[in-house]
Every structure is written in structure tokens, then in C-alpha cells.
Amino acid sequence: MDFFYVIPQDVHGSTIVLRGDEYKHLARVLRKRIGEHILVTDGEDTMFEAVVSTLGRDEGECEIVQTHLRKNEPRISVTLGVSLLKNPSRFDVLVEKVTEFGVRSIVPLVCERTLARQDKHDRLEKITITAMKQSGRSYRPRIFPLTSFETLVSHSDEYELRLMPHERTEQSQFVGSVLQHHEGVKSVLVVVGPEGGFTDGELDIAAAHSFVPISLGPRRLRSETAAMSAVAWIVGAG
Hints:
single chain, alpha/beta, 27% strand, 13 strands, 7-stranded parallel beta sheet
């Protein structure tokens, strides 16, 4: 079934209202008719199977047939703190792919070696919506405001497990092995640095807040590849 997104305020009891681009896609691109079944998510962990009931000029309504909670969502809640990248298009791809993998939240970071200093928050929000629909998720990952590395790390106590991929980490700390030793965790924060890597000072700050250094293998990875790999491993462990 085709998949649509609405904000929670457009779910009224057993009725869902589709507006804007989502309605245009339903009525003008897909040419849905009254009585056809679709899937709709509110981006807040609820997915609905619904039937198109009215088709107006600028909006339409659907009647809910069945409701699913946390449909296609991973057991482990993963927050990714990741440095902005020099090439914004690479960061866009990163956001798209970790959304498809199942990340819960994304915190764009400014680290000591971060070259970029500005993110396009609205664009990243749109990317998460598209990727959520593509992957059939019921939750839209939250994009947090641009945050300093030190601020995120110093407020990380709420996470059961804190991970930090780093190229100088011993292979004995391979991510798969580390996750096996922390089986059953429900919330994980993983931080990934910029193209130039973390500084020694940042490594010390992370160690002081109980971050576990992990290896993603013997090969040197781009920042966006490291972020995708780490998220995939963590989600897969759940």
C-alpha cells in the first residue's frame, strides 16, 4: 500500500485529514479513489491502515481501519551525534540513510575540527520525512539544533550506553563485540567526528563521561560511512 505522512493534529478520532503535498500526491499523482486503502503515519510511532473517504479540492479524508504502534521500529533507541561535514550533500545522504536504518534522533555537532558551521534544519527535516516513508517507519527521527560536542557529551548521562567510533581503537573493541557485552540496553548514544577526526582533548572528555571507544573495522571510513555503519550495527543488535 502507498504510504503517507500527517502531523498528529490532523488525526481526529477515526478520521485522518490529508493536506498539502501529501494530498497532492494522493489525489493528483497516484490518482487514488474513494474506497482505496492506504497507510498513514503520524511520525510519532503510530501507523494507520485507512480507507480514502472524501476527495476535495485541497484536502481529503480517510477513515482509520486499523492502528499499529511502533510499526517497523527497532527495539533500541539510537541517538546519533555527528559532526557537520564539509560537503553538505554528504550530510544529507547520511541523514537519509540513518533514518532508513532506524535512528531515533540526530544531533548535528560542531567539533574542534568541524569545517562547516551551519546546517539547513528545514531541509534535513524534509529528508527524514521522505526516508521515513521510503522505509515504512512509523516514527520520524528528530533533528536537534546544532550543538557543540562538549555540550552533548556533558549531557549524555540519560543513555544506557555511549559509544565513540575511532580509528585508533583496538580491534578487540569491534562494535559487534562491544554490543554483545551490553546486551539488553534500550538507549544508545553514538558520536561520530568530522573528516579530521576527534582531537585528543575530545577523546579525553568522552572518556570522562564513560563513552566506550569502538572499532568499525580495520579500514579507514569517511565520517558519513562510519555513522551509517555504527547505526546499522546498533539497530541490528536489537
